[in-house]
Amino acid sequence: MEELREDHDDGTVARVAAIDIAKASGMVCLRVPHDTIEGRRVQQVWTVASTTNAILELGDRLVCQGVERVVMEATGSYWRPFFYLLEARGLDCWLVNARDVKNVPGRPKTDKLDAVWLAKLAERGMVRASFVPPKPVRQLRDFTRTRTVFVQERTRHKHRVDKALQDAQIKLSGAVSDLFGQSGRAMMNAMVAGERNPRTLAELAQGSLVKKKAALAEALTRQFEDHHARLLGVLLATIDHLTAQIHELDQLIAQTLEEITTPPDDPADADGPATVVSARVLAERLDAVPGIGPTTAQIILAEIGADMSRFPTPEHLVSWAKLCPRTIQSGAKNTAGPAGQGNPWLKGALGEAANAAARTDTFLGARYRRIVKRRGHAKALVAVARSILVIAWHLINDPDASYQELGADWHRRHLDAARKTRDLVRQLQALGHQVALAPASA
Predict the structure, then answer these.
(1) Are 252 and 143 contacting, i.e. CB atoms less than 8 angstroms apart?
(2) Quick check: 246 and 151 in contact, CB under 8 A?
(3) Closest Cα partner for 242 from 109, 132, 152?
(4) pLDDT tens per residue, range 266-276
(5) For 406, what's the count of Cα atoms within 13 Å in the CB-facing half-sphere?
(6) 49-98 residue pLDDT tens
(7) Which residues pair with 42 in a beta bridge?
């Protein structure tokens, strides 16, 4: 028999409120102890409109009732007004995953019963709070996510430009490496302005493309009509507008990074003054990791924040990001289940970083090449992304940490020669060979 001793609070809450949130309203369930009868609880259920005044009035009522915790499901983006306004009122708000608090099969499904069920789970400590970062980090998230969407939209418009040129029999994208470089953009602007002569357009080439004027003139021989010019002008203007908006978001992100800092050290553990590091400095540290650039570093900080107290260990962060397999154990059989969805913004940035690091001659690149041989490209990228996230945790958690490259030969230098020899001998014997080892001569 295994004996467990709980040294921490069991999570039960005496005075709790739960909110089942819809688009225009929320069903509130309040459960508090009875005033006179011990062991009995009083339950109230009512509907609250999702307007600012109604939510603030709800917050005052819950504060007067001495509510210790307010729990709500993550329903689209409709939970945000309730969470932010009640949190500003001083209430302890928990956002929980709807998958973890779904109704027991066979129970009737109504908003009232959902709110009551959620309140009962909360008062018994049977729910876990999702990670909701503080307000400055949420603002940084809004900027970085909007920038990501704008960059994706700009890329789609660039593809539309190439399709419009292909429709006009212009093969410019096959003759230049960057269609939107200085030369390519100058040629497209000239076509929008009314220039139709291929040789005149080819004369706009700059840099290394000057040697390819003949090929450019051939690629620019076309059936370019006025409606192509009007369409191309609209697409180029949209791309320029998105580029300006992206630059503005870059400035807003840089300003917000200065406002976010790591929490000060515990005075009991620190001999000197408390160390506080700004998110800008953390972004510069993350930029030193292979595969991570300034944009990716900003996205990582926006998604996980600068306070790692919510993730006590790197394993907690990796598990939250869904970059590790889920363990399924039944009897004597252990199975690694799917990792799960996780945060798509964080996983997308880490995937790009892992893809870039895999092509480098570094420790992370060597890790990818070791794993891809036996597990495949996708799983090798996930493993490298996990390593990058672990490195990020250490760089953010330790104010004095800095990235030190181990080198692509780290695994070879730390190879267990005896174990490697046994593996190779076992492989040769499995192929039907008799192996006799002799020490190499000096």
Answers:
(1) yes
(2) yes
(3) 152
(4) 555 555 556 78
(5) 14
(6) 999 999 999 999 999 999 999 999 887 889 999 999 999 999 999 999 87
(7) 32
* pTM, entire model: 0.85
Q: And the tokens for 96?
A: 């929980």
* pLDDT digit string, tens, across residues 331-345: 778 877 777 788 999
User: How far apart are alpha carbons 348 and 413 in whole angstroms?
Assistant: 33
Burial of 355 (0-12, 13-18, 19+ CB in 10 A): middle
CB 63 within 8 A of CB 91: yes
